[in-house]
């Protein structure tokens, strides 16, 4: 078509169409919008894809290609079930066929517990795979509330897991999330149950992975150890979450308290632990630990991120009556080296405030009267340690009384009655005169200040027991038959 101005045009630069001068027909002028609007649409398409309009070749084509490969946001259909994701588009386009590289996104309504399939747009259930189809999805790869993205691999006939993210209202706000407290509980003498409803974050070289327990999972801790074939007696074991494959996680159990063998602080996370029985308990009628042998998991020692003491949890058991954690063993070591360990050399011949400072150094305190009574229930009563004298060597744990019965309480505390007097937190004024300066440079006390001791020592004969007390020892008395035991309040964290 020839563009010719009309015969009587006053604007020779104007653009007219459909002019026919030979027949005297004037052309029609093109409205400004006819040229401007298409240009604006092209610019909008280019900028929408994040490009800056420029004098470049094929920007519009590139923009259209990018638009074609943007993930379509889908929604799970009501027909979705466990590990089966039936999806329909929430956008304007409803695809009827799948093309290589096509991407979809959707918000997970129910998490996966293992391998899964995706049925997008009614094209049929297709396997959901990890990177390059290397493996099926692992339990917890798709977390409730997460926005996940998959890409269609036409050659492999599967959906490839690309990424996962979290909305601000979802689990991204949590380092961990628990619907149950505690989320680790004992299950028999060698097993631990991971409770359903817990979501735990694992940082792997700066990238977050999430493990979501969709159902209770029983793990055999002995089979998950990083070294050794069986549990050792009277030891603390730690449960770690570590990476598995491209996106998954698994559990490892280790004696190491920092990270398990074969891993590092950058790809492991300690989530709990437990202590093992130090010596065969034997048969004790009515005792919860009757029949336990060395190496069995002490039920009350199991701890986890949302059920643990303020202090370090090693060598402790939980007394649910008083909501307090108690040392399994009598104190060994002093100051920052104060410990509750099997086979430690028993700390003795120290003044009351020395024991107080020892426990304070490790974020613990001495037991109160009612706490000692509760924690010592089930111990031997009115008997003393075998031999009725100071043991040699004088080490902690595993002792029996003069009747051959193991000296262990219901929750697993060793030698609470009949081995040593144990300093309690309570002190009492008992009159007297003059100032006593045995507190060093931290002030003096006036007259006599007496301490309360519990349990009974090796020479106390039939007076020993959970209710056995003596209060005739001065605050400043340091005696070989006197020792201590620590306790810690629980460390609270929100569910």
Q: Quick gist of this model?
A:
With 495 residues, this protein is mainly beta. The protein is 9% helix and 27% strand. The protein has a seven-stranded mixed barrel with strand order 3-4-6-7-9-8-5. The protein has a four-stranded antiparallel β-sheet with strand order 17-16-18-19, with no helix packed on it. It has a four-stranded antiparallel β-sheet with strand order 20-21-29-22.
Structure commentary:
The protein has 495 residues and is mainly beta. It has four domains: 1-30, no CATH class; 71-166, no CATH class; 175-307, Tail fiber receptor-binding protein (Trefoil); 324-495, Alpha-Beta Complex (paralog of FGE (formylglycine-generating enzyme)). It is 9% helix and 27% strand. The protein has four helices and 29 strands. It has helices at residues 32-48, 59-69, 352-361, 369-376, and strands spanning 16-17, 28-29, 72-76, 84-89, 103-107, 116-120, 126-129, 146-153, 158-166, 176-177, 184-186, 191-194, 199-204, 207-212, 217-220, 236-244, 248-254, 269-275, 303-304, 316-319, 324-327, 365-366, 421-429, 435-436, 445-446, 449-454, 469-474, 482-483, 486-488. The strands form eight sheets. The protein has a seven-stranded mixed β-barrel. A four-stranded antiparallel beta sheet has the order 17-16-18-19, with no helix packed on it. Strand 3 (72-76) and strand 4 form a beta hairpin. Helix 1 crosses helix 2 (59-69). The radius of gyration is 37 Å and the shape is elongated. The chain starts with 15 loop residues before the first strand and ends in a 7-residue tail after the last strand.
